Amino acid sequence: MNNGLLDGQEIEIDCPNCDKEITITIGSGKSSVICPHCKQEISIDDTNLTDALEDAENMLDDLLDGLF
After folding, report:
1. pTM for this structure?
2. 48 or 9, greater pLDDT
């Protein structure tokens, strides 16, 4: 999802290993991050995450199109 409406935005997710909240940047080009709490690698190239972000971006695009 490069150059998308949400690129550069930070989102908070729960680490799947320790359940603590971490912040990731959308469109950073990284496919994984290290949890600052448990130090485990987390894949952010997950299909479900990507699909959810694309859906959110499409909804924002539609909303903005309706406003202008």
Report:
1. 0.56
2. 9
